[in-house]
Design a protein that fits this description.
By secondary structure, the chain is α+β, with helices and mostly antiparallel strands. The protein has six helices and 22 strands. It has three domains: about 90 residues, no CATH class; about 200 residues, paz domain, CATH 2.170.260; about 50 residues, SH3 type barrels (Roll). β13 and β14 form a beta hairpin.
Length: about 375
């Protein structure tokens, strides 16, 4: 590869051309070097085989499968296979044995998915599926933006059905205060299509078709923002001229982002959902576990109405709300937990007994000592 007298030195030129092919960075270019001719390569290699040691020749052949296991009874010096490059292993506790790969004889091979595998809208919570929204797909020249330039090749383009075409704000207003499922890609480009598309989406914390639960706190169109007041009534708040202009630009940006960045045509954005994202569960004073929604830093809060999923089949069981259960059942006598009151916050405790909906507990204050007390309402 480096000897100027090598019969195949032309395979490894030091100077060569770069075909930028419309790219901007050198590492994106196509390297114009000769294709290696197999016959010439093998012929050149055969002239050097006599210089190889028996161990080196064996490394060029197929061998047996080895299994390396730890054995504490073995304690020996393991000589380096490449002296001067890797040191010897002074105290080797490893033993190598030939491993016979198991055969499939007598086994029933399952071709495809196992019985009961959940797919599409029935897939497990959080698993990406394009089937949560009605759509069609077609292959065509759409100019999807990849790595800061429009693709000149065909792309698989999705078209979402737009249930809010022609307005639909009255229907959208009924969703205020209700939970929905949303997903949106980050601003950087990702190529559309099949498995690569899904893999790249999985690297992001939030992205269509990965869905995240949220709650609609308001909806808006070009003229009004609608929100719910304490008595449950939905009232409109008119946009100022500047807000109307901002709303139009945001709607156009949504359309363009889905179309050019993701290869998804969502249609005209006429209604926007403003969503608080599910943070997790919180415990009430009564002991129930309820969902907590809020605006999460770095996570989008505004979504085109036609990209919002109203219901999913598989719930995320980690975030199921639970009603309060009797404290004697939740914390039976002898159970141990942590105290979250003002006195010795975070210290271990043990439940001693119950009295109505209260408990007597021991709190570990320091090594070798405890303090007793009661917890009102059992919490």
């Amino acid at each position: 590869m480096t000897d100027s007298k090598s019969p195949i030195i032309d395979f490894y030129p030091r100077d060569f051309e770069l075909d930028m092919n419309g790219k901007k960075m050198e590492w994106e270019a196509v390297v114009k070097i000769p294709f290696i001719e197999e016959d010439r390569l093998l012929a050149a290699m055969r002239t050097k085989e006599d210089f190889l040691s028996p161990a080196e020749r064996s490394r060029n052949d197929f061998g047996v499968t080895l299994k390396f296991s730890y054995n504490p009874n073995i304690d020996e010096m393991y000589l380096s296979s490449m002296p001067g490059v890797f040191p010897d292993v002074a105290r080797c506790h490893c033993v190598a044995n030939v491993f016979e790969l198991p055969t499939l004889e007598g086994l029933e091979i399952i071709v495809g998915l196992c019985e009961g595998a959940k797919l599409g809208i029935h897939a497990l919570a959080g698993f990406p599926s394009l089937k949560t929204l009605p759509h069609t797909a077609e292959l065509g020249y759409h100019g999807v933006n990849l790595f800061q330039q429009d693709s000149r090749n065909e792309s698989m383009v999705l078209r979402l059905e737009n249930a809010y075409q022609g307005g639909g704000v009255e229907e959208a207003k009924t969703k205020i205060g209700r939970r929905v499922f949303v997903g949106k890609c980050n601003r950087d480009s990702i190529p559309p299509g099949d498995f690569l598309f899904l893999l790249l989406l999985l690297r992001r914390r939030l992205g269509y078709p990965l869905l995240k639960e949220g709650r609609v706190n308001a909806v808006s169109d070009e003229l009004f923002r609608y929100h719910m007041i304490e008595n449950g009534q939905v009232i409109p708040a008119p946009h100022s001229p500047n807000e109307m202009d901002t709303w139009r630009r945001k709607a156009e940006r949504m359309e363009n982002t889905y179309s050019k960045k993701m290869g998804i045509v969502i249609g005209t954005v006429e209604v926007v959902f403003h969503v608080d994202i599910l943070k997790g569960l919180k415990r009430t004073d009564e002991g129930a576990m309820v969902k907590e929604y809020a605006q999460v830093p770095g996570v989008e809060t505004d979504y085109a109405a036609q990209t919002v999923v109203e219901e999913v089949v598989s719930e995320d069981r980690r975030f199921l709300e639970k009603s309060a259960i009797p404290i004697a059942e939740e914390f039976p006598e002898g159970s141990r937990a942590f105290f979250l009151g003002e006195f010795n916050y975070g210290r271990p405790l043990e439940v001693i007994k119950h009295d109505a909906n209260k408990v007597d507990i021991w709190i570990a204050t320091m090594v070798g000592s405890c303090a007793s007390g009661g917890a009102r309402d059992g919490r």
